[in-house]
Amino acid sequence: MRDLFILGIETSCDDTSAAVLHNNLLLSNIISSQEVHQRFGGVVPELASRAHQQSIIPVVDQALKEAGIAPSDIGAIAFTRGPGLLGSLLVGVSFAKAFALARKIPMMDVDHMQAHVLAHFIQKPNIEYRPPSFPFLCLTVSGGHTQIVRVDDYFSMAVIGKTLDDAAGEAFDKAAKIMGLPYPGGPIIDRLAQQGNPWAFPFAKPSIPHLDFSFSGLKTSILYFIRDRLKEDVNFIEKNKNDLCASIQHTIIEILMEKLVMASRETGIKEIAIAGGVSANSGLRNAFLNTAADRGWKVYIPEFAFTTDNAAMIAITGYLKLQRGMIASQDMAPYARGNL
User: How far apart are CA 201 and CA 181, in angstroms?
Assistant: First the structure.
């Protein structure tokens, strides 16, 4: 493949992001988060799409400047096609189509969840490149998805375990909301949990067959537990906030790790990765490393910048698709829901 620069665009939810690759080497990765949603305790789709419209040009401009190149230097563009919020996706898709048409360059549509997995193949200047070897397993956990993916090749992936209802990240955010913590609640629970006792309050774990997950029952259990304790003491949450966070986090992580251990045992695969926004959780990272040491796994943990929604993972997936001639057409449309 000829030497080229690739622009990546990510607008699936409430982060506007643009990244530039020089072939497979990352030059810039700019992320603009939307603070407007904090007052509503969750992402408001209409506000998210409006914010993307305001941010996408400045974010792309900053990514190009940080990479030290001009728009005319871009030889291909990759963008998130889905899944995600349709209004948000339309902003990124429309920008990519217009850019590609104006510059007469190829464009590559990218599945958001596939990109989370392939974030492990991002290469940075002067940093040792240590990607997973095929086949490997990837636990992909975020606010909207919880999956165990078997990865046999860049574009040969199979979901062997998934949530039947809510995602792990959603369970974190819902638990935070019940306790009156600000949005997004996952990082706050992680911070408070470090000062608490993870065995202070046992919560029942769901009994789900094989490799699938369920978190809706756990959310209900947390809600009823706290509701009943507040009847006894209106200051229960404030008095036990650290222990509550630690116990909730411990329960969610145990559910995730038990299934991942089962998946490794059944497939015989010991190359194990994690990805997605929840993979930034310190408790999950520690449990992952401890389990790896006990079971002889070779593990891969993404940089914090590549865990949440970011355009670097979109750009590297686009680069890999371009190598195989997987080019998108101008008549393609985004999708809100989809599976790997």
Answer: 18
- Residue 161: phi, psi to the nearest 5? -155, 140
Domains plus CATH for the chain? 5-128+309-323 (3.30.420.40), 136-305 (3.30.420.40)
* Beta bridge partner(s), residue 265: none
Contact of 7 with 63, CB cutoff 8 Å:
yes
As beta bridge partners, residue 20 has 7, 28
| Confidence band for 311, pLDDT divided at 50, 70 and 90 | very high
Contact 21, 8 (CB under 8 A): yes
pTM: 0.94
Helix (H) or strand (E) holding 160: strand 156-162
What confidence score (pLDDT) does residue 184 get? Answer: 84
- What whole-number distance in Å separates Cα of residue 31 and Cα of residue 173? 21
Q: Strand order of the sheet with strand 25-33?
A: 25-33, 15-22, 5-10, 74-82, 107-111
Q: Cα dist. 274→16, 56, 95, 270, 330 in Å?
A: 23, 28, 30, 13, 33
User: Can you give the pLDDT at residue 1?
Assistant: 53
Does residue 35 surpass a pLDDT of 90? no
